[in-house]
Amino acid sequence: MVNEDPNLEESNVTPEQQSAPLAVDPDIPAPPAIPTDSSISAHPSVSVHPNASAHPSISAHPNISVHPSISAHPSVSFHPSVSANPSSSAFPSSMAYAGDLTQTSSLGRGEDLSLIKVSRRRWAVVLVFSCYSMCNAFQWIQYGAINNIFTSFYDVSTFAIDWLSMIYMLTYIPLLLPVAWLLEKYGLRTIALTGSALNCLGAWVKLGSLKPHLFPVTMLGQVICSVAQVFILGMPSRIASVWFGANEVSTACSIAVFGNQLGIAIGFLVPPVLVPNSNDKDKLAYDIGIMFYLIAGIATLLFILVIIVFKEKPKHPPSRAQSLSYSLIPDTSYLNPIIRLFKNLNFKLLVLTYGLNTGAFYALSTLLNRMVILNYPGEEVNAGRIGLTIIIAGMFGAMISGIWLDRSKTYKETTLVVYIMTLVGMVVYTLTLSLQHLWIVFITAGTMGFFMTGYLPLGFEFAVELTYPESEGISSGLLNVSAQVFGIIFTISQGQIIENYGTMLGNIFLCVFLALGAGLTAFIKADLRRQKANMEFPENKLQEEEEKEKVEKVEKADNVTSKEPTTLSEEHL
């Protein structure tokens, strides 16, 4: 071991000057050379500061002599804050990797990815996202919540009004891959701006449909809003991973999904209040206009907030897993990740089970007004309140699930239990809907919603765990494609069953597929890849490891120094 004098100052010399030998008085004998272990070498980007002592078991580069008369290799830099450690590996998550994880961002500034730090802006980002996601979800369900009123106003069939909801599902399927590619190429901010802008545009287009013969215009506005939804649905898990720490990602994802669910809840509650049933089409046009103007104004305000608040990513990575993902070479093709994902059996099972559960939720939300009116005529307002109860209960379920996952990391077990309870809740709701007691329906619908809607963020986070380090946008996008496909199938099928055979058989139809989904969920293995990456060097143990290494180095340095003094000072020269 070689200790240099702490009084010596660090020299600012060029590599050529460093490589030149030092002049030494020939009358002064040189100290004996210290043997070095050539089997262990330091990372080429990391060396020991002249004032810092290296661990005795770690040598310099095998081609570099440690004799005091010979300088360090010119390719080795001196960093004052990095020390060698016998337990450190070349894996990027080790403590001596500052050189490996320093990169230049797309904005052109260097970023020290070795510093794990969360940004205070993260809460503003997820809040703004939740708000414009809420606005978009409101526009999805606002027609279905008062299906019979819009049927009367536009003089179209109930199936045509159902398509105002199903167009959201249909548009998503072909646009997923292009939007996923845009997310990978241009990042979060561009996707957020595009989604909120389209949402705002669609809301203003609908204001041109306030006449009974202008149903095609309201359909056009809804199509634009459905395109905006493609830029929204895949974002929660991506925002959570990019902006939040390892112990916050599930909670953040739940908050992001929370906004979408809150929008659906408001979409069930507000339209029946703002647009009460009436035979006067002029009054209906006035009431519908008020609703459309309100949502257009809110959408515009949210678009402005996205411009101000939304940033691409924080200055420093918020978690170890995110830091490692920055160091990976991005795949410019969006087909290759999809091919890799579909080779993952656990992910394929999750795609199927998520689609069954969420598709059932979409069908139930779209057809809820019709089911309630058939059993309780004239109860449009209570139909909206039942939908509100389902969503509010589901938001609490989503928040509790997110907090529980952040603490327990039991993704497989939690997902399976929630899925089974969704099935139980659906069965109970089916049996109580026709009992002619609305208060019972409120209770059973709320219980079902707590688990059915609470499952949504669970699926997103479980998918990220199973597919890390693949893009969160692609994995969550594929989940949503499955949900849209099953949503269209279930909505059309259940609608026809309800029309021909009643609500009981229509709900039993959904129960059968939820039972299938619960069974398949049991076969998913808990291959939590993101958690393994975070546990490679857990943030909460870094300080403890550093202190332990310092103590060990001091003890070993004292032992070696006492046996063979090798300290060089000005007095020796």
Automatic annotation (TrEMBL):
UniProt entry tagged with the keyword Endoplasmic reticulum: yes
Any one annotated GO CC term: plasma membrane
Record-annotated membrane-spanning stretches: 123-143, 163-183, 190-207, 213-237, 249-270, 290-310, 345-364, 384-404, 416-432, 438-458, 478-498, 504-524
Biased composition (Polar residues): 9-20, 48-59, 559-573
Bilayer topology term: Multi-pass membrane protein
Locations listed in the record: Cell membrane; Endoplasmic reticulum membrane; Mitochondrion membrane
Pfam family of the protein (one): MFS_1
Protein name (record): Choline/ethanolamine transporter FLVCR2
Organism: Pipistrellus kuhlii
Record lineage: Eukaryota, Metazoa, Chordata, Craniata, Vertebrata
